[in-house]
From TrEMBL:
Organism: Cirrhinus molitorella (mud carp)
Keyword entries, A-Z: DNA-binding, Metal-binding, Nucleus, Repeat, Zinc, Zinc-finger
Protein name: C2H2-type domain-containing protein
GO molecular function, one term: zinc ion binding
Record has Glycoprotein as a keyword: no
Length: 418
């Protein structure tokens, strides 16, 4: 039998040799890693020094380092406020020629950035980037109050201000407040008279780009036509709003009385009916209003100011809305149709007045005899039969119940025979 001791000794020696080789290998590897880390660190340091060496131009105002003298000159304009590049169309100035070049697209109408999804074009690259989110349908930012979602956080923040009522931007000319700086900027052009958007066809100028686009449709003849009544519109958005008249769609409901409205603006104006607060008073007659704009319109009654003129008959009006309603007399346009008999009307009030013909309701009662009427006007005429004669002839002092009867009587004195 063989002695196992020499074998055991030989095996132990082999293990020792292997361990020593492994330790030596690890030491070499560690040394190599350290050497590589040191080399990498040195490379980074050299690159940083080279970069710093390149940025040898330092701003004395804020300490920022720049790579060239030109870059430094451009940068210092931030501190000095210098804007040497001026637009020859509207006089607006810019710090950099690239900003002027981008701005000029507003006047030329050039829109080099096109959406590959729908073909819509934009003057700036970032506008296209924002637009692309419309196609992705991704709206990760939700309002915690009404759960409405937005593709951009900035749009959510703007929306939330409508719930809080916070209007941080105030016009120092008239103290009107706005949700965004952009809204304020557009408003201020009313005071400054600035109209940066010029029509290439007739040189007419506008405060807003949207107004210019609408105006240009006059020259191009582009119209969007309603399939229900044939009325044409300069913009698709106007046609979309108009269609609600035919569909009867009223999405905006008053939470106080349940009345519904076609537009948000209609609901907003209506809500003030429920508020008792009327801080704006007329200095001439004492009548109070919830909105300053409504007071301004009212004051024109006292001053006789009528800025809106009908080009067909030269009749003048206090507001653009009243002029627009009047112009329908000349065009024959009647947008408001009765769903009972098909009769059409110039105004909503006319349709509402007419609808009572189809109902048996007579909401207006005479307090003296109990007689009821469908219309308030008919009740007023009736009440005069109880003895009230407001209309007096200055020739013979005879009194009449209605103005119409007085007018007929006055022909006796004037000799008029129509």
């Amino acid at each position: 039998m063989r002695d196992p001791e020499p074998c055991r000794m030989k095996h132990t020696q082999q293990q020792t040799d292997l361990m020593e080789e492994s330790e030596e290998s690890e030491e070499q590897q560690h040394h190599h890693v350290k050497s590589r880390e040191k080399t990498h660190s040195q490379t980074e340091r050299i690159t940083l020094l080279k970069r710093r060496a390149k940025k040898s131009f330092t701003c004395t105002q804020c300490g920022k380092r720049l790579t060239s003298k030109q870059s430094l000159e451009n940068h210092t304009r931030i501190h000095t406020g210098e804007k040497p590049f001026t637009c020859d169309q509207c006089g607006k100035s810019f710090r950099y020629p690239s900003h002027l070049k981008t701005h000029m697209n507003i006047h030329t109408g050039e829109k080099p950035h096109e959406c590959d999804q729908c073909g819509k074009t934009f003057s700036r690259a970032f506008s296209l980037k924002d637009h692309l989110k419309v196609h992705s349908k991704e709206k990760p930012h939700s309002c915690s109050l009404c759960e409405k979602s937005f593709s951009q956080l900035q749009h959510l923040r703007m929306h939330q201000k409508k719930h809080t009522g916070v209007k941080d931007y105030m016009c120092f000319e008239c103290e009107k407040t706005f949700f965004t700086a952009q809204e304020l900027k557009l408003h201020q052009r009313i005071h400054t008279g600035e109209k940066p958007y010029k029509c290439l066809h007739c040189d007419k100028r506008f405060r807003q780009l949207a107004n210019l686009k609408t105006h240009e449709n006059i020259h191009t003849g582009e119209k969007f036509i309603c399939g229900q009544c044939g009325r044409s519109f300069a913009e698709t958005s106007y046609l979309k709003k108009h269609m609600k008249i035919h569909t009867g769609e009223k999405l905006h409901e008053c939470d106080q009385c349940g009345k519904t409205f076609l537009r948000t603006s209609g609901l907003k104006s209506h809500l003030k009916v429920h508020l008792e607060e009327k801080p704006h008073s007329c200095s001439l007659c004492g009548k109070s209003f919830s909105e300053l704009q409504t007071l301004k319109v009212h004051q024109k009654i006292h001053t006789g100011e009528r800025d809106y003129v009908c080009l067909e008959c030269d009749k003048t009006f206090i507001t653009a809305r009243h002029l627009k309603q009047h112009q329908r007399i000349h065009t024959g346009e009647k947008l408001h149709e009765c769903d009972q008999c098909g009769k059409t009307f110039l105004r909503v009030s006319g349709l509402k007045h007419h609808l009572l013909v189809h109902s048996k309701e007579k909401p207006h009662s005479c307090s003296l005899c109990g007689n009821s009427f469908k219309h308030m006007q008919n009740l007023k005429v009736h009440q005069k039969k109880h003895g009230v004669k407001d209309h007096k002839c200055f020739e013979c002092e005879k009194t009449f119940i209605t103005a119409k009867k007085l007018k007929r009587h006055q022909r006796i004195h004037t000799g008029e025979k129509p």
